[in-house]
Amino acid sequence: MLGKFFKKPASPDQDRVPPGQYLASGFPVLTYGDTPQIKTEEWLFKVWGKVATTKIFNWSDFMALPQSEFTKDFHCVTRWSKLDVTWTGIKVSDFMALIDLLPEATHVMQHCYGGYTTNLTLEEFLHEDNFFAFQLFGQPLTPDHGGPLRLVVPHLYAWKSSKWINGLEFLDREQLGFWELNGYHRRGDPWLEERYGGF
Ligand SMILES: Nc1nc2c(c(=O)[nH]1)N[C@H]1C(S)=C(S)[C@@H](COP(=O)(O)O)O[C@H]1N2
Ligand SMILES: [Mo]
Description:
Layout: H1 2-6, E1 22-23, E2 44-49, E3 55-58, H2 59-63, E4 68-75, E5 80-91, H3 92-96, E6 107-112, E7 117-121, H4 122-125, E8 131-136, E9 139-140, E10 150-152, E11 165-171, H5 178-181
Parallel strand pairs: 1-5, 2-11
Antiparallel strand pairs: 2-3, 4-5, 5-8, 6-7, 6-11, 8-9, 8-10
The chain binds the ligand Nc1nc2c(c(=O)[nH]1)N[C@H]1C(S)=C(S)[C@@H](COP(=O)(O)O)O[C@H]1N2 and molybdenum atom (MO).
């Protein structure tokens, strides 16, 4: 009976931390290789592959799209998570309204300044939670966190959230990106602990 009154409330945050993850203090930076320094004046974003027309966007094209705020949890496969990261950006669905996908498009490769790549199925890419971010906690996104623009795919491990993204290549079959070729999982769902392999 007493237990009913003295039971420690379950931490609501604990339910939001996927298995095998711990909460990071601060917001760690995780980059393979050098950090590209790209000015918005020279920034370009290309869409090619299984699309009706190859398109190139500049910074003002992107900034003319509807902007939204997002508060999402962030999970790195190296076992740190950060809850309630606040971003400003553009929904993938708002951007994709400008793109004519061919019916055979089933997958997408993200390309970045610096050469990093990571793959998604079209379905994972078109997930309604996904967005391109250019601000972090109300400040311009710094180069170490992927500025001027990164993708954020909150429902998958953060290696699927390309920093310095500068292109989308739509594909009619699966190709693997940088970490996926190096043994990481092709999908990367943190709730299923899809860390490695997946073949
Ligand atoms: N271009 C690029 N994007 C990247 C990476 C990278 O090395 N290069 N690292 C990924 C990994 S493993 C993680 S955990 C997140 C880290 O984002 P952060 O440095 O902003 O915390 O970016 C992802 N996106
Ligand atoms: Mo990561």
